[in-house]
């Protein structure tokens, strides 16, 4: 049944109610930030979703880059002299998580437990190094950039898989800050939080791609082609708001006719 609007404001209210009825508290912040203008709030919410979507290629590439860089560096650092090579130069099993250093076990108890938890999640599937590496989350790899891992993880990585990284960024502190910011942004995106008010969002996206290009230009060149963040960011929320106003006017006009 066509709703019986008495005014344009009622048609706007109708759209708003049906848009936000599933989670009214989540939309409250958008409404407040839009001066109680319902269609503008809806437009900002949709823009936020589009920004989250547009960040996926950057976050995806950054996580793969860090994971692969640490894994390959650790294989070279701790396994190259202790395991026999296959004819193609690979190892029978690149399991470096149990490696020991002059200071003791490579991984501390907390981080090694994450490895054990990752193995448990495989639930009957073969426990291979690639499977476990893929199961460990972004937070695990970022934690391996903490100060206690500077000598055992970060330095070997900077000397091998991240040797092309810009000189000023080739420190434990810089790497930790950069990838921690990306991890936090990824968590906000995946938990559907508002990110459109982050003033450094475009800078983070650009810097992430720059780092990825320096470290692995081949993988980055492929995935960078999927990036459309700048276009979504520049467009803003106003075009969607204009479209919603047109829709509201159409509803109102159809009723009056």
Q: How would you portray this structure in words?
A:
Helices cover 65% and strands 2% of the residues. With 257 residues, it is mostly helical. Strand 1 and strand 2 (104-105) form a beta hairpin. Helix 2 crosses helix 3, helix 3 runs parallel beside helix 9 and helix 4 (109-121) crosses helix 5. The longest helix is centred in the first third of the chain and has 41 residues, at 38-78. The two termini are 15 Å apart.
Identify the notable features of this structure and list them briefly.
2 strands, 12 helices, mainly alpha, two-stranded antiparallel sheet, 257 residues
Can you list the strand order of the major beta sheet?
1-2
**Terminal CA distance:** 15 Å
Helix-strand sequence: HHHEEHHHHHHHHH
Query: How many helical stretches?
Result: 12
Mean pLDDT: 89
Number of domains: 1
Q: Which percent band covers the strand fraction?
A: under 5%
Low-confidence stretches: none
Short description:
By secondary structure, the chain is mostly helical.
Task: Please render the helix and strand layout as text.
Layout: H1 8-20, H2 24-33, H3 38-78, E1 100-101, E2 104-105, H4 109-121, H5 129-135, H6 138-143, H7 150-159, H8 172-190, H9 201-215, H10 217-224, H11 229-235, H12 238-256
Antiparallel strand pairs: 1-2
């Amino acid at each position: 049944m066509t709703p019986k609007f008495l005014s344009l404001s009622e048609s706007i209210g109708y759209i708003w109610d049906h848009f936000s009825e599933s989670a009214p508290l989540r939309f409250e912040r958008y409404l407040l930030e839009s001066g109680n203008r319902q269609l503008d709030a809806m437009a900002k919410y949709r823009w936020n979703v589009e920004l989250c979507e547009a960040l996926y290629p950057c976050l995806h590439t950054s996580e793969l880059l860090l994971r692969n860089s640490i894994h390959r560096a650790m294989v070279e650092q701790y396994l190259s002299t202790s395991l026999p090579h296959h004819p193609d130069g690979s190892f029978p099993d690149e399991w470096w998580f149990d490696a020991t250093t002059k200071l003791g076990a490579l991984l501390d108890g907390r981080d090694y437990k994450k490895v054990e938890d990752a193995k448990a999640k495989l639930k009957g599937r073969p426990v291979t190094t690639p499977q476990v590496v893929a199961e460990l989350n972004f937070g695990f790899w970022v934690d391996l950039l903490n100060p206690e891992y500077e000598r055992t993880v970060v330095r070997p990585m900077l000397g091998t898989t991240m040797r092309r990284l810009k000189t000023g960024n080739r420190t434990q502190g810089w790497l930790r800050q950069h990838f921690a910011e990306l991890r936090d942004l990824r968590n906000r995106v995946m938990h559907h939080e508002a990110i459109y008010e982050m003033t450094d969002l475009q800078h983070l996206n650009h810097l992430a791609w720059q780092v990825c290009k320096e470290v692995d230009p081949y993988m980055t060149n492929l995935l960078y082609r999927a990036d459309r963040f700048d276009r979504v960011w520049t467009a803003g929320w106003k075009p969607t708001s204009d479209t919603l106003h047109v829709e509201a006017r159409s509803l109102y006009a159809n009723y009056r006719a």
